[in-house]
Amino acid sequence: xxxSGDNGLLLYSLVSSETNxxxxxxxTGQIFTVSVAGKVGTFHLEVQAxxxxxxxxxxRTNVSVTVDSSSSSNIVMLVLNQKINxxxxxxxxxxxxxxxxLEWNVYVVSLxxxxxxxxxxxxxxxxxxxxxxxxEAHQEVPAEDVKRKLREQKSAxxxxxxxxxxxSVSTAIGEAAATPASPELVxxxxxxxxxxxxxxxxxxxxxxxxxxxxxxxxxxLVRKVEITEGFDNPWAADENGSVKSLEKPxxxx
Length: 253
What we know:
Layout: E1 11-17, E2 22-24, E3 31-33, E4 41-50, E5 58-67, E6 76-80, H1 84-89, H2 91-102, E7 105-112, E8 127-134, H3 143-152, H4 154-165, E9 171-174, H5 183-229
Antiparallel strand pairs: 1-4, 2-3, 4-5, 6-8, 6-9, 7-8
Helix pairs in contact: 2-4
Domain Cadherin: 1-77
Subcellular location: Membrane
Transmembrane segments: 185-208
């Protein structure tokens, strides 16, 4: 926007998105992940830019983000005592420091905070930097070798990062958590459990209904026998050859 003053001050926002895995820096428009752990696929976001003039003008565009799965077993987690939004703004410098002290090329896989809500991103003083190191032959460096080098260069890395963040920095090596089950798998498990419970309940209902009907049938049979015994045989003939009367005996009154 070539305007100046309030008319040139742009603010960015996510108008709509399929999930809550993404957020946006309202001042720079940078889109980042909140958490996409264990999730793969293409996510569609709609981004809006608006100025701050009296008659606010806006523009929108669609952004597609494709998340690929990583099968690497050499991802290393470095935990920093810094807010995730601060680390995000200085991610290039963090990468530079790691490459300088480890003497390997570094690819940052993700930045992660335990807090998912945007409002908590600036209040959580812990950020996990997940990265993979590559040697000169572009081969992944084993995770144990990277961890060993991190321990050796711990003081030097913290000193460099203090200059980047202008604050005291402490680092720790974290253990990568097991990949959580995908939403589809969780949904299938829950649905299977519900179907199983429904089937068991239906089977129990059928068995109880059959038992009730059998008991009811026996009672009806007893009543029919009692009623039949209370009447003379309608097909029996008297001594004159005529059909006996169906009149109820006196003891049935």
